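Researcher: Next entry in the queue.
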Amino acid sequence: MAHVFISYHKNSSRDYARKLADFLIANGFDVWIDDRIDYGNNWEQLIFKAVEQAAAVIVIMTPGSYQSRWVQAERLYAEKNNKPVFPVLLEGDIFPAYLAFQTADVRDGQVPPEDFLHDLEVSGVQRSSAPGRNVAAQVPKPEAAPKAHDISLPTAPTSTAKTTITRSRRFEAAMPSQIIPTAPTEVWAKISLPDSEGLRGELPAVVPSGDVIGKEDARATGFPFKFPVDPTTGEPQPVTVSVRAKSAALTFDDGEITVELPPDYDSQTVIFTANLHSNTAPGMRVRVTLDLVYEARLIAQISVSALVQAPMRVPIPSAWTLATAGISAPPGQPPAENKPASSTGVLPGELQELYADEALRGSESLADKLDDLIELPEAEPVEEQAKEAYSRSEGGAAPSETEETTEIPRPRPATPITPQPIVGGADYDDFAPRPAPAKKSAAPSAPIALIASLTLVVVLVLFLVQSNLGRPADQVTSTGVAQVATQTDGTQLATATSTGGGDRPTVTPTREAPPQAIPVRVGLASFAGCAAAVPEQFAAGLPESALVEFDDSLDLADPSALSQMYDVLLSGQCDGDTLTLRVDLLKRVAPPELFDLPQLSVSAPVDNSEFFGLVNSAAVNYLSGDVATAATGFYDAARTAPQVDQSFALYFMKANGLLLAGQPADAIDAYNTAGQDLALFPLAANNRALAAQELLLANGNQETEAAGEAITVETVLVHLETAHLNTSDASQQAVILTNIGLANLYFDRDRDTALARCTDALNFNPDYLLTQACLVGRAVAQAEETECPVGDEPLAALTQSLAETARLGETDLVAWADVLYWQARLTERIAACDQTPPVAVETLQNQRADLLAEQPLMLQTDHFGGQ
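Model: Structure for this entry, 867 residues:
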């Protein structure tokens, strides 16, 4: 009978693999495990033949197996042959490829539960009432030997199970962005519908320490979940899942909480109470990982973090407080009341920094900002207010306070109520902090000393603001990523960024002011069943950059064939009162390593001209090069989309616009939202990785943070691997695998992995030119690390790449420029070793300079060699 193949890493999981094999054999399954095969045979052939003949494949996940090329090759070959894969987590974290799988959690070293055996049977593995056997002990020699790098198209595992229904869900978590070591904190978690407000709908909230969990502190990850189906009614049934919290710096009162997961509603909110370890000092960042577990299988995972701060204590109002209180409200409005949740003492230096920063940015008013930092004394002492707040929240009297300086207790958040269905969820960008509600005025007391002090403060602030308005200052994006110095002529000079490991040159490219919009050729094609006024209304609402031509005879079966005539095609079909609009984007804007969407399709009532106008205008602005305006337009369209499932593609295009506009951290949030659409998930994961790569390259390859997440090299590689393992499209695989190889080069990581990934990319698409940049880049690293002369392998890589650029260069000028950079570097090395290069380095450099002069620099990787 068909066997179960066990894939494992010899050094990290051999003992457990043997234990698992014995367990399966004892329970009636035939097992293939390679610890007893005759290595005198061609064992590579035996292994892949065993995968072909297996009924299912078990992958034992450990950090070692994640790095093992053999384990990765075995599981990819299993997916190529449509074998059901059963991940088993023994150590570390779940593989990114299996985040959407129900995973057996055996980190305690125990064998999987009985349900695991049942799932094997359901997937088609035969089970006998008698013990099974290890079929690897007596295997015949196979006839063919597939190579690991010849593995072509991985496809999703199939299952014959008919008793479940898959629904998309969102696993959310949040904790305060700042916590103190002297009081407990809380971590919140929730499983939500994709179109629900979810956890952010319950925020902001105050935890026992007085710290606030804001909407911006929430993190989310999407995943599919298989609900069991009632065989009688055919309806999906609720299940009980567990949420587990773990942290190296926190101790949880209860580290695992069970919650019911309904098929049609959000779950209840899970709240973990935690205390910092005694050795955790202010200034440290603590991280909490939350596992979502169902039937001992890890099905989703997310992490949140917080910065440890020294406890904030509230002193008795000082003279400085009295002097500054009067400027905490705009002219003509009464000053704000004292808030027990904040400190009332602010140093003059902080005010100076605040005024200089806000005046130069021109964002929210200084008075609003100061209102959050500086408090007014009320007629009633601060301590009395604190006692009243405590009494209201706890239902009793507050303890008496005798010290001059006291910590103010804050009310706990209300216990989450049973959730109801929510529709019309918004993007997380909707949850920006709102202005504080109007506050009561303080007692009108203004002694002479207060007036004199207030006058002094106002004069000081005005002097500081005036002195800073006339000079250049650091200007940052909304996520604090790339610093640029503003010049008087409106251009911007990017700061120097490291371009990777080793002795790669530091580059300081110049970015010009945004150019005028490029004309966009718009073809208005057939609108079947629609009134003649519909396309005319669309044309009238397009941006000025649109050059519109009406032609309802256009053949839309192959829109790409019309790319010589048009940049974008608008067409549609009316069915009663509903119009389905199709937007074909025929002109590529993003560089080759970034995915664009070739088509958008949305439906709405035909009279919803505002929504259709937003989509059309955003598409035209995107193609014209005005990517920042396009991002705003796509966002507005996504928010007003009548159907939530239509919004994900719009969020994806919004993210692309933000990334190309130099706002990679903002793009990450939008990519996370777009990735909730399973069809877009691999594309969003790839582009999100490139956004993280942008942040690292702009930060000198040093770890940074965006949207509350740590951005590291591992972040980039994990998301790229996730993208690679979740698509079966050959062209997408070529792009993603090349990006993995290039990332290993940019960050001076595993160059053998770079070579293997880019070689695999050529198997998927031999015409993808950017792969040559990866292959030549690896040859450069090899040549520069070894003594002269340059060896045959780098020379062969250069010769091959020159032939490929001659064949494909004109098809992708951006990729050609990237390849030329690496070719020039390798040619320089050859010449330095007194060898004769096949082409002069000056020729390559001049070619690249000409190409760069014809196109904008869109990503940090475009900057390489930009001297």
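Model: The chain is about 35% helix and 20% strand.
Researcher: Noted, moving on.
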